[in-house]
Amino acid sequence: MDIEQHKIPQATAKRLPLYYRFINNLHSQGKQRVSSKELSEAVKVDSATIRRDFSYFGALGKKGYGYNVEYLLSFFRKTLDQDEITKVALIGVGNLGTAFLHYNFMKNNNTKIEYAFDSNADKVGTEIGGVPVKHIDELEDMVKGDITAAILTVPSAAAQGITDRLVQSGVSGILNFTPARITVPEHIRVHHIDLSIELQALVYFLKHYPLEAGEEQEE
Amino acid sequence: MDIEQHKIPQATAKRLPLYYRFINNLHSQGKQRVSSKELSEAVKVDSATIRRDFSYFGALGKKGYGYNVEYLLSFFRKTLDQDEITKVALIGVGNLGTAFLHYNFMKNNNTKIEYAFDSNADKVGTEIGGVPVKHIDELEDMVKGDITAAILTVPSAAAQGITDRLVQSGVSGILNFTPARITVPEHIRVHHIDLSIELQALVYFLKHYPLEAGEEQEE
DNA sequence: GGCAGATTGTGAAAAACTTAACGACTATCT
DNA sequence: AGATAGTCGTTAAGTTTTTCACAATCTGCC
Ligand SMILES: NC(=O)c1ccc[n+]([C@@H]2O[C@H](COP(=O)([O-])OP(=O)(O)OC[C@H]3O[C@@H](n4cnc5c(N)ncnc54)[C@H](O)[C@@H]3O)[C@@H](O)[C@H]2O)c1
Ligand SMILES: NC(=O)c1ccc[n+]([C@@H]2O[C@H](COP(=O)([O-])OP(=O)(O)OC[C@H]3O[C@@H](n4cnc5c(N)ncnc54)[C@H](O)[C@@H]3O)[C@@H](O)[C@H]2O)c1
Questions:
Q1: CA dihedral in degrees (A164, A168, A171, A175; nearest 10)?
Q2: Is A165 helix (H, G, I), strand (E, B) or coil?
Q3: Which nucleotides in chain C have some atom under 7 angstroms from a protein Cβ?
Q4: Taking the complete model, does pTM exceed 0.90, yes or no?
């Protein structure tokens, strides 16, 4: 299973959850079939790209017909491992961390925030959005063996230190919201989401890349 | 100025704010010069890529020496228009919106959230993080002519409706945090930041693309 | 049963992006 | 002064991703 999976381009892999969500929507609406063109309009991805993406998994559709929503859904559910839940920890229950805890990532999602951690005694012991907030000293004990990935929303000065501890505790992926570019061993995957940079980049594009008719949109 | 700017690859443009931030840090630390290799370690971008990126703007460095931090900083400040402030509005003062309001985007940044808007009467009239919260009915009046971009943090059901009103009011860029893929006229730029998808994609990569020594990290 | 129209899957081309490699140059040490 | 250890800018190669365009083939209808 894993050998063939490796053939799937990373760009495609990143779009899979997006496809999954929209197929899910269609299914809830009772739609039976969908074409790459329709899907394209909904998710704002070129229809040829969608067909190409799907084709990496074999022939999911039927010529002249399109894709069967039910079949597509069950296929993606399997492919995205929607049936097993991945446990996640969140570190840093501040403004951003609290917002995430209130948000139910489980909805349409195979991930669950099991624990949150903070160094602030006022927050420890509370429960936010159904997630218990633990003291950061308990990090290693709670995470070890159980938690696959971590969401990092601590102040940037603390980012590297916490990262090292997460790595020590066996976490294999980190979603880093701090502006710090953290250093990790090679087998650990880090995705950076840098909100200030996103905003600045948008503004830069507005000024320097005025959109003409027919131009591209970004992710 | 704009004609030549268009030669800069989008991938490069997205990295500029990142470079700017780190150059700023170096400058604060009193560092005089920096090499592409050092910068590479700090921002986790290949040093060849950095040299290539910088070279789109001409010869910013000196062979055998590196880059002068002071010069680099002033160059990027100019290029990223750090001297003029771009006014931004935030729509939807919920969990996520509130977190953003508390965060000072002005710090190291040329953007300022001028107003926030919400439909909830309890929130209207308050001030969060120094930003006044207005009623959504005032959107058109406040935004018109004054605001360049908007941060969208409303429930996804409201996203398209608010988007249409933003477009009507002359906003030219939207940072969309809702899962809805909004439709806009061609001259409007939308960047989607879809946090659920980011988390799901990370998990997918962990399962299907285990990192070997020497492999790549994602943004 | 057959035909018009729709839509896929994909080969091939193009575009976009990254990386390697190296000539030219700087700074510093002996 | 000459040797040594960097370092840039850039050319060229490599890689990844997107897009075009169309034969193959299925649907839906008559
Ligand atoms: N809030 C935003 O909109 C926003 C935007 C962009 C980036 N960020 C980044 O996200 C991160 C969090 O931002 P925030 O606004 O939520 O900050 P915050 O100060 O509100 O929250 C940080 C939390 O981390 C906790 N903390 C501090 N040190 C800790 C440690 N060593 N171990 C465990 N917990 C610790 C604090 O007690 C606090 O609760 C920051 O790095 C910030 O730069 C935030
Ligand atoms: N909170 C998260 O961590 C998170 C994560 C991923 C995605 N999102 C997305 O971000 C968006 C906001 O999430 P949230 O958790 O902040 O939701 P929320 O419900 O806490 O906040 C939404 C806010 O928008 C306001 N609102 C509703 N309709 C409005 C309208 N027509 N005009 C103006 N304001 C209106 C509400 O009063 C509320 O204050 C949602 O689309 C959500 O899916 C949030």
A1: 0
A2: helix
A3: 5-11, 16-21, 23-27
A4: yes
